[in-house]
Design goal:
The chain is of the alpha/beta class. 37% of the residues lie in helices and 14% in strands. The relative contact order is 0.18.
């Protein structure tokens, strides 16, 4: 997930879902990138510790060029509660990186039939989209 740490970006939902994902896919790594995504973020650290996923998660506080990560991630997830035009989806898709996104702003128009849209209140659909994407990538 490439997004600054902010309650509207919904990192909490991703971390909670990821705990369930790694029970089946032990080798999956969740990479969180964005401002305030670091070991000084006590809220983030507490959430990760409570969900027991610290061995399967990496932080990158800030990244100037997204193309630096295009060869190391298999897909991108954005679970925002609100967005207008989610630039990160357009940018990652332009690098050939599939996306899973909440259905906010212009996400549906950007992703079209080339990714997965979910409702933020549908935990099962998020879980299934992530698992389907993992299975397609490997």
């Amino acid at each position: 997930m490439i997004a600054r740490f902010d309650p509207h970006k919904n990192h909490t939902k991703l971390i909670e879902t990821f705990e369930t994902i790694i029970k089946i896919n032990h080798n999956v790594i969740l990479l969180l990138i964005g401002s305030n995504i670091n070991t000084q973020n006590n809220h983030l650290l507490k959430n990760i510790h409570n969900n027991q996923i610290s061995k399967n998660i990496l932080f990158l506080d800030h990244l100037n060029e997204l193309n630096e990560i295009s060869t190391i991630i298999d897909f991108h997830i954005l679970l925002s509660f609100s967005e207008s035009f989610p630039n990160v989806i357009a940018e990652t898709m332009s690098m050939g990186i599939p996306n899973i996104s909440s259905d906010v702003g212009h996400a549906a128009k950007i992703i079209g039939n080339n990714g997965w849209l979910i409702d933020n209140d549908n935990d099962n659909k998020l879980y299934n989209a992530i698992n389907e994407t993992i299975n397609l990538m490997h």
